[in-house]
Amino acid sequence: MRTTRPADATTADHDTITPTPPCPAIADFYDEHSTEPRWLGAVQGHADPGSLRTIDIGRKLLEATDPDTFAAAVADLVDVWTDQDDGLRYPPSDGWPWPWQDLRHADWVYTFDGHRVWVVTDRATVGTITPTALIPDPEDVLARRVELLDELHRRTDPTAEDHPAAPGQPSPRRSRFDLLHEHVLRAGDRTQPLTDREIADLAFALTNPLVRDACLSFAISEHADRAEALWTELVRTSPVPERAEPAALLAAYACLRGDLDLAAAAVGHAERSRPGHRLSELLGTALRNGIDPQALSELARQSQKLIAEL
Question: Does the residue 14 lie in any domain?
Answer without folding.
Answer: no
